[in-house]
Amino acid sequence: MAGREATDGDGLPDIPRLDPGAVAPIRVEGLRKRYGNVLALAGVDLTVEPGAFHCLVGPNGSGKTTLLRTLLGLVEPSAGEVSVPDARLGTAFQRPSHYDQLTVADNLDVFGALADADAAWAETVLARLGLDVVRDRIAGELSGGYSRKLDLALALQKAPAYLLLDEPLGELDDVTKLRLLEFLGAYRDAGHGVVISTHNLGQFASYVDHLTIVHDGAVLLDTPRESLDVPDGELQELYVERILSAASESDGEG
Amino acid sequence: MSLRTILRKELLWSRHRALALLFVLVLLPAAFAGASVFFQSTLPKDAPVAVVVEDDAVSGAEYDVVAASFRLFSKPVRYDSEARALRDLERETVYAVVSVPPDLGDPAVDRVNMTVTIDGDMTPYREPSGALVSVVSATMNRQLDTRVVVDREVRGEERKLASYLLPSFLQILVFTFAFAYLPYNLASEEAVLDRLRVETSLDAVVAGKLLFFTGLLAVPLLVFHGLGLGLGYGVNLLAPGAILAYGLTFLACGAIATAVTFASGFGTTGRLLNVLVLFAFLGFSGLVYPAGFFSPLRRGVVRLMPTHYAMVVVRGTTLRDLPPAEFGTWLGGVALFALAALVPLKLAMIAYERGT
């Protein structure tokens, strides 16, 4: 598996280890979600294994965000079963989701208390994401990149068994993206599940353990990375080809 | 031409905001114009007045004469006990108490004295009660051979309008806090709701918000009380009954405002609707003018508003130092109203969670 470098050596405390065998997988069977006349999810089957880096990839409007929100319990399915283990879930949404009027430290304090987070680990997250320099800044005044990092910190500070992130790299500069990817890889290596919803698979190519391509509310491809005989650099291309092929089939049927 | 393009943009914008514009330009003006029917006259022409018949010697005809003389400017209500009538005077169920004296219709009696009792704390009724006494006196002396002298008696000190208004202004602040500031505060935190729903529950978030803002009311309460003391108004805004009434009013109104906010998906329509509801509560809670003023229609609406009873409790406990137990039933009613307001709130939250 790619991207399994050591979690140590950066002078920062280790990520707490989790035995993936002790956590049940997330299972979705026949999941359908309808918003009025729009069928957002059209019978999705999916299994997310613990301790894996799972990418949900699809174009805008494909249903991946609805799928992620359903896993989080924020969307009530119209039909189907969703089984999320009784384990901690951490999340960061596409839109900033923190208290704009509070400082970074206050936000971490409030959400840390809600999640019963370990204070030492919360400090580690702050340092690892480079948020310690803006600790006392009002969150609403942060740049887009710091704002996103704060959301990640809020998601991480309870050391969730599964980390569910919706387009986590948006608005981040290239250096920060790289550091964050390394961190997410290390988090996976420590036994935690990482689920990414994105339309830019290329950014995560060297970390992916499992790939699910979603198109028009249905799963187009659901496979372990190792079963795909393509190098990391061509994963995005593979995804785009699959989507274009599915779109032309839909047009042909239409 | 750039102006033409900008105007075209405004037109396009208005097409996408049809519902909000319909509300602002049609529904809101219609509501204001329509509300004018509730304020048809400035004199309390049908304010309820207790006509007490305690003495068996008073005949039905004598009662009828007294009641008829009051009918021009009020709505006489028969009472058999003066104590009960005076209690209802304190509770603003009636605005004056008059006892029908015996021998009113006896031509052998030269002169009969009759007293109209009003409450000194009910400042807005003081002047109308003077007019009422003059009219009643003239009417009765025209109809009866016996000379009738009608006196006006004021219970307690005659309170100045400034101190009478202090508890009302605080209630106006409570309404504004509930229907304007609370929804604004909720909307400013809308983006955090999804995270909060993952970490805890929407119920806990909303309960926390309502309880915290109810607690915050302690600050304006203390400010009003302090200013009242400084100005020598003799108004005890820290009376337990008043604190309870203000708190329950805020909880009920806050729940309604929050329900509207969630039901509208934090949209502009919800904000505008909350403004409309705020005006309704301000206009029909009997905050300044008691229920018997302006029109029978308004009185009917005011008497249906739980917040009117909260205001009466506030006036009774702050202006007249009455114990909260005196208003136990009404406080219970306002508490029930607050509980009932949680039902639409819960439904709106369920709809919001299903819709996101």
UniProtKB/TrEMBL annotation, chain A:
Example GO molecular function: ATP hydrolysis activity
Keyword Transport: yes
Keyword set includes Transport: yes
Keywords: ATP-binding, Nucleotide-binding, Transport
InterPro entries named in the record: AAA+_ATPase, ABC_transporter-like_ATP-bd, ABC_transporter_ATP-binding, P-loop_NTPase
SUPFAM superfamilies listed in its UniProt record: P-loop containing nucleoside triphosphate hydrolases
Domain ABC transporter, chain residue ranges per copy: 26-241
Transmembrane segments: none
Pfam families on file: ABC_tran (PF00005)
Protein family according to the UniProt entry: Belongs to the ABC transporter superfamily.
Stated name of the protein: ABC transporter ATP-binding protein
Organism of origin: Haloglomus irregulare
